[in-house]
Amino acid sequence: MNFMRTLFFSSIFFLLFNVTPSQAQEWSSDSLIIYRSFDSFEEAIINTEDDLVYVINFWATWCGPCVKELPHFESLHNIYKDEKVKVVLVSLDFEKQIDKRLIPFLNKHNIKSEVVLLLDPKESKWIDRVDPSWSGSIPITIIKSGDQRNFYEQVFHSPDELKGIIDPLLKSKK
Amino acid sequence: MKNLIFFTLLLGTLSFTFLADGYKVGDKAADFKLKNIDGKMISLSDFEGAKGYIITFTCNHCPYAVMYEDRLIELHNKYAPLGYPVVAINPNDPSVQPADGYEEMIVRAEEKNFPFVYLFDDGQKVYPNYGATKTPHVFLLDKDMTVKYIGAIDDSPRDADAVEVKYLENAIASLQKGENPNPSTTKAIGCSIKSK
């Protein structure tokens, strides 16, 4: 009952303000979605079947090059405000550092993208499922649209580099 | 004209070097000469009576590398007496990642009391030969310096208590029996090697 009530009021809230939770409130360990198994992560984040273009970036607060390229991914929100583009930041931070490091980082940098934490410890089992060519070093980015899935083991240096990949995918939908 | 031919040849050689993506299992590794934290130049051939080498590309700054420090110390203490020393190499360019400078390596080795050599790939000439892409990244060689195993130390980098499969130790056990490791390659998350 309580759950239904919460659901009802949060629906009203979203309808009124038309915002997603990450934009409306500060990040906290409650607002962070954690996947402890790659199976559930894959189902929810990678194997999505809708008409959005997904930009899925694997990163961590401890990864220098990742932090450096993060603003380019954040800038996609403004660039594609009215387009069907969704950015998901998949953090590979450590469980012990969620409160000490990850949450403060997200708030400090005012991160607006969806952030999920992937904690499945058996990396050797799931790295190839992300992409067989992935060496295991981060950052990496998956950009997918429908059945088309591109994998980038590289650092992006500008929003334009990302636009150059996303724009054709959006165009091919129209 | 002569110059042009020379330049073309040189360019060809260079692009070949850059395109080669490092050793595969079964390849014979070339020896190297790198500076250890004690100032001495070290080559693999200096390890007399070695039955193999646990070449580990690692560094100071990477949390994944740091998480394996204690496990590397244990590995060395267990396997060096059996003829399989850990040979740690820092492949990073300190001008990109200052925490991985030679002086900083000395400090970290003293803090952790590393029982193994910790070599500096000054000029980044060794790691590209191996095709190392990240830290930590392990290459297990047999006594003839043939690459026998490439990849992770175990199956749980972020949680030492959750380790179920010790890939590297299993690979060493295979070498001890004169067999080829299976799996001979595994993967783990790591920090990209820092270069300009």
Describe the fold and architecture.
The complex is a heterodimer of chains A (174) and B (196). Chain A has one domain (29-173): Glutaredoxin, CATH 3.40.30. Helix content of chain A is 45%, strand content 20%. Chain A is built from eight helices and seven strands, in the order H-H-E-H-E-H-H-E-H-E-H-E-E-E-H. In chain A, strands 1-4-3-2-6-7 form a six-stranded mixed β-sheet, sandwiched between helices. In chain A, strand 6 and strand 7 form a beta hairpin. Chain B is of the alpha+beta class and 196 residues long. Chain B has one domain (22-192): Glutaredoxin, CATH 3.40.30.10. Chain B contains six helices and nine strands. Chain B has helices at residues 2-19, 63-67, 69-79, 102-112, 127-130, 167-176, and strands at 34-36, 41-42, 52-57, 86-90, 117-120, 134-135, 137-142, 147-151, 190-192. The two termini of chain B are 33 Å apart. The A-B interface holds A 60, 62-65, 92, 94-95, 119, 121-125, 127-128, 134-138 and B 62-63, 97, 133-134, 151-152, 155-159, 162, 164-165, 167, 186-194.
Summarize the helices and strands and which ones pair or pack.
The complex is a heterodimer of chains A (174) and B (196).
Chain A: H1 2-17, H2 21-24, E1 33-35, H3 38-46, E2 53-59, H4 64-74, H5 76-79, E3 85-91, H6 98-108, E4 114-118, H7 123-130, E5 137-138, E6 140-145, E7 148-152, H8 159-173
Chain B: H1 2-19, E1 34-36, E2 41-42, E3 52-57, H2 63-67, H3 69-79, E4 86-90, H4 102-112, E5 117-120, H5 127-130, E6 134-135, E7 137-142, E8 147-151, H6 167-176, E9 190-192
